[in-house]
Every structure is written in structure tokens, then in C-alpha cells.
Amino acid sequence: MRIAIVVIMMIFLESCAIFGAPTELDDTKGLSAERIYGKASEQMESKEYAKAIGYLEKLKSRYPNSKYGVQAELDIAYAYYKKEEAQSCVSAVERFIKIHPNHPSLDYAYYLKGVAYFKERGFINKATFQDISDRDPETLRKSFLAFKELLTLYPDTRYGRDATERMIYLKNKLADHELHIARHYMKVKAYVAALNRAKYVIETYPDSNFVEEALVIMISAYDNLGMNDFKEDNLRILKQNYPNSSMFTKGKDTKKQDWWKFWDKD
Q: Lowest-confidence range among 91-95, 96-100, 158-162, 242-246?
């Protein structure tokens, strides 16, 4: 009996080696592009994004030149975005832009690229709920540039308002990130480094909400470096542009520190 079982098992293994492992049933075989797209849409609605991508990839492969095949390329990018796989989303978008430079939904592709970068967060960011201004600014810059490219190429796009609002937000967060580093440099008395960061904010993000603070850091840095002429020049600029700045009175009744050293802790 045992010998018979062994023989049967050997025959089964040999047949597997000859014919290969059983293949997964393809439920899209023989279906039209429209039907396959419908299956992908159903999976998208059910938030089964991985399955949706599988259907869309088959659609793109079998009907590459159909309207559904082309739309599948853009939908794949969106599905990756919903799966929070920003890099895969961006790669799919960039491939779509390259292959279809005149597609009527190209503005959406640029917008999706910007949003994907905007919401990209690494494992540590997700686990610690880290503030966006404390994150690596590289993806924030990429998001800003994607929205900027969108508005440059398609100034009348339907996504213009949202892209503009996101750019304003990103601009302030990027400026805040730079000043976050500048504050640290001031605390450790690295005044030249702090000065350079503050200058960068003023030059790169002149209409952000952090120009006032950047000027204050520059004034303090120049003061500590003994560069009084530059200090006075920037003090005049601060008074001219921010005459009601609360920073003029901060620390006014305190002899321990000058008014501009607002980052110091007593």
C-alpha cells in the first residue's frame, strides 16, 4: 500500500514538472476592453486597489490603443495613489505624460503627481504623526514644483484653485522648515549658518508668513557677528515692512536678553 502511494506521488510530481503548476483562472479572458474596465472600476469602488491595478494592467496590455487602455494608464496611477504608494503613482504619471503629451486629461496627471508628493509620508512620519514642516523637505519641494508646472502649463485648469492653495501651504511649510533649522543654529551659536538659512527664506519664499521672523534672525545673527551696519539695515527693513511687529516689544522689560532673542528659553 505504501509503495502504491509513493508511486502515485512520484507520478503526480513528474506531471507537475512536465506541465507546470496549475495557472490561476483568468476571468477577463475573451472580454472586451469595456468589460475589463468595468471590472476594474468595481474593484476601485470597493477600495480593492491592488485587484483594480491587476485588471487595469491586463486591459492596458490587451487593448493598448483603445480609449479604455489609455484611460487605464491614468487609473493605475490613481490606484497607486489611493494605496499610498506615492513613488509608484508618480512613475505611472510620468510615463503617461511622456507617452500621451497631448491627452486632454494631462492637467489632471500633473495635479495627481503634485498631490501624491503632497501626501507622501514615510513609515516614521506615519508612526509618529510628525508635523509636515519637520519632515524631509525634498518631497514637499517636489510637490510644490509639480503644482507650479501644472499652473504654468495650464493656467486655466479646473485644478488651479486647489493647486494654488496647496502651493501656499507648502511654501509656508518649507519656509518654516528652513527657520526651524535656523533657530537651532542660533541656539548653538552657529550664526553664519543661521544667517544663510534666514536669507534663503527671504529670497526663496518672499511672500511666505515667515519673512518677518527671518529678518529678526538675520538682525540677531548680524548683532552676534558684530556686523552692526548690516544689523541696522535689516532693522530698518523690519520696521518699514512690519511696523506693528510684536517682536519689537518681546523681551522689552527683560534685562536678561535682547528683544530679538525670542528663541531663548529662560
A: 242-246
